[in-house]
């Protein structure tokens, strides 16, 4: 690909989750060219495009026919993804898509296989990986700076109100979202945990719906984890913790403990040293799910465009996303069956 040419993106979907993407794309205007945005609701599409200065597209087919579109950014609900990805792959367009890949592991695997067969890149939006503190901790883990990882503890104490969130049609249903707190909210933190700690071999879990919500799927999950590298771990994730707080991932190494709380990292070493790095930001853990900055999205979009230009895998891609889908499937199976479940590979 010509390094001088702006990377062309077509956007499909412009609902609640599109705002940070739009702001990120605006900030990347020097290198990213938004060729068009398509949404079926024309009035809402026009409002979105006027707000952010993007051109509306007449149809999805029009975006696919544009030879200046290098990739499609898919921001629809999970139940509308598979056909859109297949059409993009047939047209030779790379795909960057909001999490999750799909509602089920089987559908997610089909999407990844479709992109592989067509030779197009597939990136999955997991913006937590692109926080400064997350990247720093990834370097520390890769270098084994504080020795072997022995344990991990993830807490996602978020809040979503019934009115205005779960009362929306389709919200928290298997048919639209594929599940509850795990696949819709905690999936970001679970993906980050796996990227730092490696794969999980087995889980023992409990998933329930609290009396605070009326919904089809789970709003509270606890699980014990057995990592492939011999470390152990625990997860608690909920959307029933009013008013909602920042997610926290603690990693216990042989010689130090590192804690990521939203975008802030604190390391305490056994030699008595304390190291802090981070940023002042909200995390989307409260009633407003979009209360976070857009720079993490901008960093991920830039990484995806660079991956296409240099023919490499994006940092967060379809294959890495399958790890978190397999973990979620195992957690839910363990809860249903009331026993330890081995994570599929």
Automatic annotation (TrEMBL):
The organism's place on the tree of life at top rank: Bacteria
Pfam families reported for this sequence: GFO_IDH_MocA, GFO_IDH_MocA_C3
UniProt cross-references to InterPro entries, sorted A to Z: Gfo/Idh/MocA-like_OxRdtase_N (IPR000683), Gfo/Idh/MocA_Oxidoreductase (IPR052515), GFO_IDH_MocA-like_dom (IPR055170), NAD(P)-bd_dom_sf (IPR036291)
Domain Gfo/Idh/MocA-like oxidoreductase N-terminal: 7-124
SUPFAM superfamilies: Glyceraldehyde-3-phosphate dehydrogenase-like, C-terminal domain (SSF55347), NAD(P)-binding Rossmann-fold domains (SSF51735)
Descriptive protein name: Gfo/Idh/MocA family oxidoreductase
One term of GO molecular function: nucleotide binding
Domain (GFO/IDH/MocA-like oxidoreductase): residue spans on this chain: 136-249
């Amino acid at each position: 690909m010509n390094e001088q040419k702006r990377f062309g993106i077509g956007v499909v979907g412009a609902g609640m989750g599109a705002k940070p993407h739009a702001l990120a794309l605006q900030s990347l205007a020097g290198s990213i060219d938004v060729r068009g945005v398509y949404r079926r609701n024309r009035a809402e599409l026009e409002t979105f495009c006027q707000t952010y200065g993007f051109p509306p597209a007449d149809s999805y087919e029009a975006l696919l026919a544009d030879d200046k579109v290098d990739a499609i950014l898919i921001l629809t609900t999970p139940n509308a993804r598979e056909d859109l990805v297949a059409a993009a792959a047939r047209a030779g367009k790379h795909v960057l898509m909001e999490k999750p890949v799909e509602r089920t592991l089987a559908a997610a695997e089909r999407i990844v296989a479709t992109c592989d067969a067509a030779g197009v890149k597939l990136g999955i939006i997991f913006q937590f990986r692109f926080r400064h503190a997350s990247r720093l901790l990834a370097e520390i883990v890769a270098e084994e700076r504080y020795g072997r990882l022995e344990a991990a503890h993830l807490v996602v104490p978020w809040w979503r109100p019934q009115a205005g969130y779960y009362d929306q049609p389709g919200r928290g249903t298997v048919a639209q979202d594929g599940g509850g707190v795990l696949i819709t909210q905690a999936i970001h933190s679970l993906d980050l945990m796996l990227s730092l700690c490696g794969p999980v071999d087995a889980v023992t879990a409990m998933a329930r719906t609290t009396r605070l919500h009326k919904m089809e799927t789970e709003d509270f999950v606890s699980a014990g984890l057995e990592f492939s590298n011999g470390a152990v771990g625990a997860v608690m994730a909920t959307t029933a913790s009013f008013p909602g707080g920042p997610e926290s991932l603690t990693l216990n190494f042989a010689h130090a403990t590192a804690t990521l709380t939203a975008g802030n990292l604190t390391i305490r070493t056994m030699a008595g040293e304390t190291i802090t790095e981070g940023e002042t930001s909200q995390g989307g853990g409260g009633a407003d799910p979009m209360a976070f900055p857009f720079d993490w999205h901008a960093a991920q979009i830039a990484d995806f465009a660079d991956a296409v230009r240099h023919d490499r895998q994006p940092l967060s891609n379809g294959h890495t996303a399958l790890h978190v889908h397999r973990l979620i499937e195992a957690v839910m199976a363990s809860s249903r069956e009331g026993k330890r479940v081995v994570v599929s590979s």
